[in-house]
Design a protein that fits this description.
357 residues, alpha+beta, Beta-lactamase, eight-stranded antiparallel sheet, two-stranded antiparallel sheet
Length: 357
């Protein structure tokens, strides 16, 4: 049932008044109807206020045609929402002095030479990889996959080009520096300290028993994939409540935890590192309408007339669509995970209610 039970409202949030109670009622009516209209079997939502998760709600089913209802512990594929959590681990290595964001990563992993050899590889830094300015593709073509080739499309550092390959490359660098696999690193440095008990970059027996199934645009079950090897770009399994704990860590004013980034490194994650010219601003109500899209270290950032809203989407072809956002200045945000290919329409349609983080 979650921290407060489905649809439970904590006292701190209830004190914000009738408007929040009305929002609860609107969501309770709107989300089930949208799930039915969009052929999405299930979803989980968590709202954050005052820098903390205050409300969790679950809707529908883990798998169409079954009686398995989505619970607070239901695990979804986070898809590309894996990237911000991985970026946090990278910044932990920076803070510990083990990684320099502006040192060419080839110096940390000299054996990782792209095929065919390319001079531009010597220029790629961790900062470029985190901000999608490495020149690497999102994913290599099937032809390059079969020949184990990886081509750099343009001079690193020159412009934005979203790249999952870049994050996977940086994962290998971080694993070489730390001497341990990503899953172990994440478990020790984030999952356990934050209390994320239902999260992992690889599928474990525990997570397998809790996970939802993905569905196509018509609501039919898609064949499941079991991620046995971690990929920083997309293999995170997590619940909405677990991911909300990570957002709370991003907004936590207390940076004294052994796992916590200090204020300088946290702010570097959220700085406007590069403009994402191929990304449209998120449509939000009123003064929260997105103006421009920038990328920080792992996060997308919308400028608005009310200040920055940090966000990330998650899209896996296995049938999962997710979204999260938070406002560091207002200490608010939300996480929405869904198990249907039309889930992007779900979070877009809910922006009128949830867009004011």
């Amino acid at each position: 049932m979650g921290w407060f039970g489905a649809w439970a409202l904590c006292p701190a949030w209830a004190q914000d008044g009738e408007a929040q109670l009305e929002l609860k009622q609107q969501l309770q009516q709107t989300i089930p109807a949208l799930l039915q209209e969009l052929h999405i079997p299930g979803a989980a939502l968590v709202l954050l206020q005052h820098g903390k998760p205050v409300w969790s709600a679950q809707f529908g089913h883990c798998e169409a045609g079954t009686d398995r209802q989505v619970q607070a512990t239901t695990v979804f594929e986070a898809a590309s929402m894996s990237k911000p959590l991985f970026a946090y681990l990278v910044l932990q290595a920076v803070q510990a002095g083990r990684l320099d964001l502006d040192r060419p990563v080839l110096q940390y992993l000299p054996q990782e030479v792209f095929k065919p050899p390319q001079v531009w590889q010597r220029l790629i830094t961790a900062r470029m990889l985190l901000t999608h300015r490495s020149g690497l593709p999102n994913w290599r073509s099937l032809e390059d996959e079969s020949s184990q080739s990886l081509h750099i499309a343009f001079e690193p550092g020159q412009r934005f080009n979203y790249s999952g390959e870049g994050y996977f490359y940086l994962q290998r660098v971080l694993e070489a520096i730390s001497g341990e696999p990503l899953q172990d690193m994440a478990e020790k440095q984030l999952f356990k300290p934050l209390g994320m008990q239902h999260s992992g970059f690889v599928l474990t027996p525990q997570l397998d028993g809790l996970r939802a199934r993905g569905h196509d645009a018509q609501g039919h079950v898609l064949p499941p994939l079991a991620y046995r090897q971690a990929n920083a770009a997309y293999t995170l399994y997590t619940s909405a409540e677990d991911y909300a704990l990570f957002l709370a860590e991003m907004m936590n004013p207390d940076r004294s935890g052994a796992h916590s980034l200090n204020a300088v490194n946290l702010q570097s994650m959220l700085a406007h590192a590069t403009i994402a010219t191929d990304r449209a601003p998120i449509a939000r109500p009123g003064l929260d309408q997105g103006l421009e899209v920038y990328w920080g270290l792992g996060w997308a950032i919308n400028t608005t007339n009310q200040g920055d809203i940090v966000h990330h989407t998650g899209t896996n072809s296995t049938g999962f669509r997710n979204y999260c956002q938070f406002s560091a200045s207002r200490l608010s945000g939300f996480v929405l995970l869904s198990n249907g290919l039309n889930g992007n329409q779900l979070w877009m349609r809910l922006m009128g209610l949830l867009g004011k983080s």
